Amino acid sequence: MSGGRLSLLIIGGYGTFGGRLARLLGDEPRLRLLIAGRSLEKADDFVADLRSPKDGSEGLGSSNLGATLQAVRFDRDGDLTEQLTRLRPDLVVDASGPFQSFGEDPYKVVRACIGLDIDYADLADSTGFVAAIGGLDAEARAKGVFALSGLSSLPALSFAALDVMAPRFSRIDAVAAGIAPSAHVKIGLNVVRAIASYAGKPVSVLRHGRPALAPGLIEAMRVTVAPPGVAPLRSRNFLLVDAPDLALLPGRFAGLQSSFTGVGTEPQLLQRLLGFAAGLVRLKLLPSLTPFARLMQRASHGLAIGEHRGGMFVRLSGLDAAGKPLACGWHLIAEGDDGPFIPVTGVAALVRRLLGGVRPESGARPATGELQLEDFEAEFRRFSITTGIRAESEGAGLPLYHRLLGSAFEGLPPAISAMHAGGHSGGGARLASGRARVERGRGWLARIVARLIGFPPAGEDVPVTVRFTADGEKEIWTRHFGDRSFHSLQLEAKGRDRHLLAEVFGPFRVLVALVPEGERLRLVVRGWRFCGLPLPLFLAPGGETYEEARDGRFHFHVEIGGRLTGLVVRYTGWLVVE
After folding, report:
1. What is the pLDDT of residue 424?
2. Is 354 helix (H, G, I), strand (E, B) or coil?
3. What is the DSSP letter of 233?
4. How many Å apart are CA 43 and CA 342, to the nearest integer?
């Protein structure tokens, strides 16, 4: 460190990932950030943008706030010793890529750093690059520097999640991980080139405990990303990608039988087209998708259709300590534009540890195990990012809402958790009673729907009782408003609708996400079916529906309506379990 500041050279500092890393670290006054790339003009423009005031606040890296910023020219094909000696960084972070195409001497930047006693880290996603960096371990140890490769979502974050879940198992048979980017993320060209390089070509995986080859972007796995306590992402297929995890997992778990790493992009139609193109490569009708990388990038930008949220999952399956089958999954969801920052949070955490005097052991190696999950989650707190673990095989016998909410159930207000604490597969019935106010829609279609389902007429201070009857893992809810009653069936949805509550009214099935929010449990409609056939979400029955703890008592607010019907019914009130 010079002048009390850690000097950090970011190769590709104005690019997709390097730029996000600079933004994440730009408010740290103990840093000197060298924003590097082949174009000094682009680096200057990026630094000027970071320094410019936004939202009425002073820009990052200004004279009064944050890191010292400097735009520099750096050419990885130039004289590396001269450039590094002149810039004098303490740490070099390679955020460029694609690492799959670094040519005959892929480690020349790493070796140059080691030769000049400079620490090194990268965001490599190339299996070969990350797995083979250990060949420089002796040189790095002799120089007393570290060189960490793959300090990204895969494998650094995925292995941190694995390390948290692994103690639950006596034997681990299968590991799967995947990234689900938001449809609105502007994917960088280097990322697309990396994916295109192995589309339709053999990717090394484990099958039945033995090395096998599977076609990239063709083999698929369907997963619903669903951290406890937030609305899950829509179920999607994840297509096989060549990630470093596939090479590193057999060394982490002896006896591992199966491995998979995938990407699940939206819209899924675009992903299916990508899989079709990969099939042409597999059939040798196309030599590679690499020449089409720019077209693929434009298509992903032009078809930004879907939710503005993304996610990630890591899943283990095997046996628990008692020898019983266990499946456990770590899930992450990032809202809006926060997801693209996840791949750089590992480097940010590493830098903050260095600033705090915590230094990795010298040597060159993959970055798995260097950071704990809590290091990543400390960075996540700056964003709208939710994570959580679901022990999928441990939910048997729990009440319905407890199974759906997982660990988030424990955080519900007592008045709400008590209302849903019974009705599990042990059988029996419970009764709750209270008072309600009922409003009814005035439209003719709303009146027809209300009559068909049996919703109560409008009224003030209406006596209400609700009987919860267990039927296996299902619950029958029978509601009495005065002398009028109607019932519905509630159960845990399966398949594509996994982790959602399904409520059945005759031929209609409404799919609902349970989302705790302070003293409330919000019920958010995520889809609906008629006789099993999916219907458009924008026509689904909806409205503000939630359960709430108020003065220690359970209150409900249920609103049902739609674009075609307008308000059908709204009933609010309170209940006490008898």
Report:
1. 44
2. helix
3. P
4. 23
H-run or E-run covering 419:
helix 414-419
Structure tokens at 330: 């770590």
Residue 433, beta-bridge partner list: 465, 576
Residue 133 CB neighbours (<10 A): 25
Task: Quickly tell me which residue has 């879940």 as its tokens.
Answer: 165
d(CA 172, CA 159): 14
Judge contact between 258 and 175, C-beta under 8 A. yes
Q: What's the CA dihedral at 572, 550, 467, 567 to 10 degrees? A: 20
Q: What is the pLDDT of residue 427?
A: 53
Under 8 Å between Cβ of 118 and 141 = no
Please name the amino acid found at residue 121. Answer: A
Listed residue (343, 356, 376, 382) closest to 6, CA to CA = 356
Helix, strand or coil, per DSSP, at residue 263 = strand
DSSP helix/strand/coil, 506: coil
Residues ≥6 apart with Cβ < 8 Å to 250: 206, 256, 259
Global pTM exceeds 0.90: no
DSSP assignment letter at 107? T
CB atoms near residue 388 (< 10 Å): 18
Strand order in the sheet with 236-240: 220-223, 236-240, 258-263, 169-180, 309-320, 325-335, 385-391
Per-residue confidence (pLDDT) for residue 138, from 0 to 100: 97
Position of tokens 């930004």? 304
Per-residue model confidence as pLDDT tens digits over 231-268 = 999 999 999 999 999 999 999 999 999 999 999 998 88
Strand partners, 574: 435, 555
Q: Which helix (H) or strand (E) holds 11?
A: strand 6-11
Question: What would the two tokens of residue 387 be?
Answer: 């994570």
Cα 128 to Cα 99: distance, rounded to the nearest angstrom: 9
Cα Rg of the chain (Å, integer): 27
Phi-psi region of 566 (alpha: psi -120 to 50; beta: other; left: phi over 0): left
- Residues contacting residue 438 through CB under 8 Å, at least 6 positions apart: 456, 457, 458, 459, 462, 481, 569, 570, 571
Q: Is 50 strand, coil or helix?
A: helix
**Rounded-to-integer distance, Cα 44 and Cα 79, Å:** 22
The one-letter amino acid at 346: G
**Nearest in space to 72 (alpha carbons), one of 145, 6, 8, 117:** 8
> Is residue 50 a contact partner of residue 12, using CB atoms and an 8 Å limit?
no
User: In 154-235, where do the E strands start and end?
Assistant: 169-180, 202-207, 210-215, 220-223
Torsion on CA atoms 111, 116, 120, 126, rounded to nearest 10: -10
